[in-house]
Amino acid sequence: MKMQGFTADDAAMERSPDQDGDIETGDVVNEADGAPISIGYGRWGPGATLTETMLVDDVMIILEGSLDVTSEGDTVSAGPGGIVHMPKGVEVTIKAGPTGARTAYVTYPNWRAARG
């Protein structure tokens, strides 16, 4: 695999698996590229909420809007430039702010491979 650069326009956005909220993700690098990580972009509609137990270590960088991430009674609120790390095995609830959010993410290992 060679060095590459990406923008959000490079991501083929699709609804996140196993959820019906207004949330889309789009990998730009994943196992199909031979990478041990997934890198991509996310789009969260206004107030969209997702609760799940993390199958991978996930780092989200908030590019636009805001997200509240709650785990074990603690909430991290992040806006543009904020970074949230969600460790493997932790249950989280992620809620977009009133204008939604755009994010970039990196997971280890590949999140699709971890889903089986």
From TrEMBL:
One Pfam family hit: EutQ
Region (Disordered): 1-30
Name the record gives this protein: Ethanolamine utilization protein
